[in-house]
Records
---
Amino acid sequence: MQLDYNKTQAKLSLLPLLLFVSLFLGTGLYLQASGVDYAFYQLPAPVAILPAILLAFFLNKKTINSSVETFVKGAGHNNIITMCLIYLLAGAFSTVAGATGGVDAIVNAGLDVIPAALLLPGLFLISGIIATAMGTSMGTIGAIGPIAYAVSVKTGIDPSLVAGTVISGAIFGDNLSIISDTTIAATRTQGCEMKDKFKENLSFSVPAAIITIALLFIVSPQSQAIEIQDYDLLLVLPYAFILILAVMGFNVFAVLISGILFAAMIGFTSDYEAGAFVKDIYQGFTGMQEIFLLSMLIGGLSEFIRINGGLDYIAKKIQHVTKFIAKYNRQVADQFGIAALVFASNLCIANNTVAIIISGPIAKKLAQNGNVSAKRSASLLDIFACVVQGILPYGAQALLLGATFGLSPWQVSTSAYYCFILAITAIVVICFRNNKKLQ
């Protein structure tokens, strides 16, 4: 009888999370059907989660003081607070480096290096480099989208193919970037170092990128040369600086703070002023406000789910679904479980970072049960969340590029070849590349 009660309690603890997803998804679908632009971004996620938190308090059946203590414990967990601080610093670096002209420098330097005959593979690489440097696929698309559209018009290349190439490169770089909010969320929820996750990610992303580049080369038509604007190569250095430090294994806080100061020093050599520097840091902080708040709120909500057995319940259900694979290899089965979990979450939420934050605790439980290393589980979370984000017609990336190119989001998402190739590559790696040691 006690077992039945615990199962019931575990199931009930998941209702608040389901309520949050239903509100967020339902509102997005309704507004999408009503023709509202960026429908899935009209209801801020930190607001959508508030009714779910209230429901969690009610279902906890403890005193208000006890429930508040539980919520604060989850919201103030070491991983959550660390993740939020990294968000702030990453936002500050991206804003400062962009304000000094770094984004324009990377775009024009890339176009200057890439031959006209290799424009599609070149756009993929440029988008990937910018996304890796900026840590945001949306920021990359916003920066390079208008340029890519102009390239399409000037060269006569199919606009849907160009748009799909840009979103492919943006997802490729965002997935690898050490300052991406998806990387931050994945590594903190799984408890691994960013450099380890970066190296692990390469085994998935590099083969997929090579295949994508080869495919884009095959489908590339003959094109004309395009005009390149002047650029200062010095402005690219801050992005390279933080990437090198991160891969070398320096503490992420030291990396980001050093990157902010280095970007400012480069800017000061031209017309960048100290007053603008201070304002840009704060602007970077405010740009991370939504994901900062949501991370804390979900952290508090997850604590209710954890103490009532919800995480264990979901982990066991996923393992039950993958049990036919587990007969041959438990580790592979749980890796597919992690992938399916975050894949389904992002289909519902249309926000890869939120999907990772929600799926993270359950994924960690599956990784521990299946002896999957933290760096592998973090990579899988980030990869499959980004795969979905790139192919969602109602995702912000496809919507923005669709508006920029005058295309339907469906045309954009179905041309994001890298995302499909990455998913297939990841499945192959899971099946044939063992990851035995738990870290």
---
Amino acid sequence: MPAHAPAPDPSPAAPRPLRVALLGCGVVGTQVARVLLEHPDDLAARAGAPLELVGIAVRDTTTPRDGVPPELLTDDAASLVTRADLVVEVMGGIEPARTLILSAIEHGASVVTANKALLAEQGPVLFEAADAAGVDLSFEAAVAGAIPIVRPVRESLAGDHVTRVLGIVNGTTNYVLDEMATQGLGLDKAVQQAQELGYAEADPTADVDGFDAAAKAAILASLAFHTRVSIDQVAREGIRSITTDDVEWARRSGYVLKLLAIAERTAEGVAARVHPALVPTDHPLAAVRGAFNAVFVEAEAAGPLMFYGQGAGGRPTSSAVLGDLVSAARDRLVGGKGPRESAYASLPVLAADAAVTRYQVRLEVADRTGVLAQVAGVLADHGVSIDTVRQSEALTASFEAEPASEPAAEAEPEETEPLARLVITTHAAREASLAATVAALDGLDPVRQITSVLRVEGV
């Protein structure tokens, strides 16, 4: 080495800490804070620089948080996001989360969020702001808790063509339906049990009526098909109308009832929907028990793939949040960017009645000769093909006799008629055709009641 050459510095200066602001300190936020405070060396080694938690925005700074130093708590979220390099948003809701995230991005911070409702409603606004500012907007925890699904769909399958995504993405409803199937509980009792175990909120509307799953379906559809899909474009039906009879008939027919989020690409465009569905017992999704989640992806080259794991809870969700945080920190240190929003395809988003699937229709009909032929004729008239028909044991129903024109001296004796139950499974048909068929069946003379109409998926 020439005498005038400077000796290499054996201990280069350590990178400055990256300042982390946390918005929200509920179940997930508390766990994120604990990991940041308890494992700083591990996270620094993985990220490439120390991650310094500089503040936690909460509504009430006087409420103690287990394992969280009170001096980190602040009710001034607006100021906190302006002095951070990385912002983690786990507060939920649309506002003030939207305003705070946009402010963080404007001030040059990368953002990690678990807020599926915000992304499903305001995603394009947030993605465009992040792109313009050259920062990351990461959201692995927004879809299925600890399950890595955003990265595989967005990055690992970037060279493939995803054709369909089926997901059990709401642990509360999966737990409820599982308890109904295995323990014979009614819906209300199963929901109450889920609340007692902490799986469901005091107000379970977002879960039971499918809003939570619909937000996740919008995100999955947008990722899989490179097309912006909002929550308003997702056809939604929850499990509130599911009965123990539905669950029992599913079992008798070789199915399990699940609330599915479905996104698929057809020759006409993209369709996204959430509804209860009958899943064959030999399908991988049928074996997903309790409050677990699973996402089943079908791609042209890769074929079927399934991602399974815990979809909710502080520890599982914090795992995904912290994974995004470490990735965003690495990008910031090297001056790079994570994957951007991909909406180049801009495919048409189809209306709900354009969906194509199979159905199971349960009817109570008069037990007469020729009734089955009448029912089959109605289906044929609407272009709905029958796969199987099952008729259960006859039952007897009472009905009032037509009133006489003259007042009767004595009440007419009650008449009865024998009834039969029909369980019809169709081949694939459009939602619009099925709706028209059900309406026509409801007006058919021998049909006494349409007990249930359920979709069949995964066949």
